[in-house]
Amino acid sequence: MKYIKILIVTLLPFGALAAETTGSAELGYLARSGNTDSTDLNAKFAVARAYEQWTHSLALSAELAEENNSTTTQRYQVGVKSEYRLSAVDYLFGTVDYQNDKFGAYDSRWSEAIGYGRRLFAQETQTLDLEVGAGARQSKLSDGTTENEAIARFGLNYWYKFATGAEFTNKFLTELGEENTYLENVAAVGMPLFENISLKTSYTVRHNTDVPAGTEKTDTVTSVNLSYKF
Q1: CA 141, CA 172: separation in Å to the nearest integer?
Q2: What is the pLDDT of residue 182?
Q3: What is the pLDDT of residues 79-104, one digit of tens each?
Q4: How far is the C-alpha of 167 from the C-alpha of 198, rounded, in Å?
Q5: Is 68 exposed, middle or buried (0-12, 13-18, 19+ CB in 10 A)?
Q6: Which of 92, 123, 143, 147 sees the fewest Cβ atoms within 10 Å?
């Protein structure tokens, strides 16, 4: 059984010099339930570059699993996002996301949205960001049918540092459409082991309110990784 998960995040400049570059690499255990039941290893790599006023990001991910020479998981995701900072706490954003999940309720899905974001509070140990927007979504379901609809987008991103080098993050996203409402929540806890190495546990829930017959509405992913930050 083989499983590989790769995530690359890059922030590109737009009329500004780079302010900060960070990254991480992870390797560990992963279990899925829902439309696919499997347990395997996963690997992840991320790099981020931040700039003044304009921020452009690209996120790529791939999940592949095989059992007895048969593919059990095949999921790809691409996300592009641009932010224009209006003030220290306010920004405008535009985003385009693509998902392809061979064993999920939706074979493929595009979504595009523009909106407004605001940092609701910022403290030394915790932050909370809110995003609201609107756009469109084009989906191909596992039964071959298609959906084209307008969507409203809502997101919450929370970060909490509860000890030296230890943190909790929770990222919530929902896209509300006439045909289907999609919800995704990723909760993660990182605990330091060495100077740049931590143990990271995450739990992801993906839910669709409307799915074809014979498929599950909810998929979950649990992972326990060793994470190296640079």
Answers
A1: 23
A2: 96
A3: 888 889 999 999 999 999 999 988 78
A4: 10
A5: exposed
A6: 123
Contacts of 114 (CB under 8 A, 6+ apart): 92, 93, 94, 95, 133, 134, 135
Low-confidence residues in the chain, pLDDT < 50: 1-18
What whole-number distance in Å separates Cα of residue 45 and Cα of residue 227?
9
Give residue 5's pLDDT.
Answer: 43
Instruction: Say if CB 174 and CB 194 are below 8 A apart.
Output: no
Helix/strand/coil percent split, the chain, to 5: 0, 80, 20
Give the integer Cα–Cα distance in Å for 72 and 61: 17
Largest CA distance in the chain: 54
Q: What is the pLDDT of residues 104-122, one digit of tens each?
A: 888 999 999 999 999 999 9
Q: Which residue in 63, 150, 144, 151 sits closest to 107, CA to CA?
A: 144
Give the C-alpha distances (Å, rounded to integers) separating 71 from 47, 50, 66. Answer: 29, 37, 4
Take residue 192 and report the two structure tokens written for it.
């330091």
